[in-house]
Amino acid sequence: MLPASFRGIRFNALSIVRVAARRYAVHEYPFRDDVWAENLGRAANRYIVDGFFVNGGFGKGYAADQMTAALVTWIKPGMGHFVHPTLGTLALTMLDMAETQKWENGRYVGFRALFVATPKSAPQFPGVQTNTAAAVTAAATAAKAAAATDFLTKAASALKSGLSAVNMAVSTVAKWARAAQSLINDATNLYNMVGSLIALPGQLGRYFGGRSKTLNGNSVSIPSATSVTALIGAGAVARGTYSAAQTNLAAAAASLTAGTAPAFAAAAQALADAVAASAVDPADAVRLLTSLASPLPTAPTTATPTGVAMATMQSATGDLFRRSAVIALAQASSTYQPSSYDDAASLRSAMAALIEAEITMAGDQGEDATYLALRTLLGAVVQDLTARGGSLASVVTVTVGASLPALALAQRLYQDPGRAGELVTQASPRHPAFMPLSFKALAK
Hints:
The chain is α+β, with helices and mostly antiparallel strands. Helices cover 49% and strands 18% of the residues. The strands form 4 sheets. It has a 7-stranded antiparallel sheet. Strands 4-5 form a two-stranded antiparallel ribbon. The protein has a two-stranded antiparallel sheet with strand order 10-11. It is elongated, with a radius of gyration of 34 Å. It starts with a strand and ends with a strand.
């Protein structure tokens, strides 16, 4: 039998009585000899424990001193672990205890305690939880509308100068389209896309820069494709979608007027969305859109009225393109699943820096609608990544004295050999049977 103890303090058990019962409400009625016992459900098990402490026993002191020291720990509120000699560890709460000291007992102090069985965790109650991803989507939609409105206001005066402003818009579109095209080629490159085949036997994708690639300095978690054929088809669809969006934007720029400016703004935002959709996973979409959100190189203009109009159009289109990428990036972040707490915190910092830069620029330019919409978007993104990453494990550095197989390390770190693939992904060893002596892994 196991030695009896409660909250780590051992004692001598004379008897332990387990009482099982059911709760009833007994209803009595006037002038009737019988009653009605209303069933209220099963009662929690109760345990009546008779035990004692003896001089020089487990506490190595006087029995009365051992009893006093035990009381300090036992009467603390909440559940404690009770080791039953035959039933093992139980989750019990002490209700009361009576200490007994008798003249004839001499060297020991007895006690009787009443315990009730309690759950190991606190009861869970329904609560209100915000759908943070939906909040990001709603904020992004409002930010798109605000960015388009401010573009129309800024570009309206430039369009009065005529063809020169339109040509500047066409030129700026060409620069942004070339930058986006290079990102599309990167995203749909078969060598890059094969990295998503990590779930196939042998984890082929790992040797093609799959999850061994990092985002914000942390390994990313991406969905697994089913076959190379599926990847080829997905890449073809993405390139076709982008080509159509690029053609539509170029046509809208060539025919840009005050009346067609809303269509031009919508086409620019659709192009950013096409870049985001071309990625095989949300992590890659974040990587691509971060690059697309960089400012475009500006072309020199003159100080003449026509040159000022061209500069205004160049600034307006550049702002629209950059903000379209930032907004699409915010939407991509809501579908990106961080692999760790560190990953979520790093992405949150990067996202906040990009959006805050646009907020500052919009405020300096007096574009109040975009300023307020981007502030709302920033709050939604930060709340979303904080909520989804706050409960994840952090990344720690694991150091071992000898090169061990991934299975052995997974058992040692997590007591789960099924997580060996996760360690292989994080460490990217030459062979899973020979893990490096130091590598990064999840803390739990």
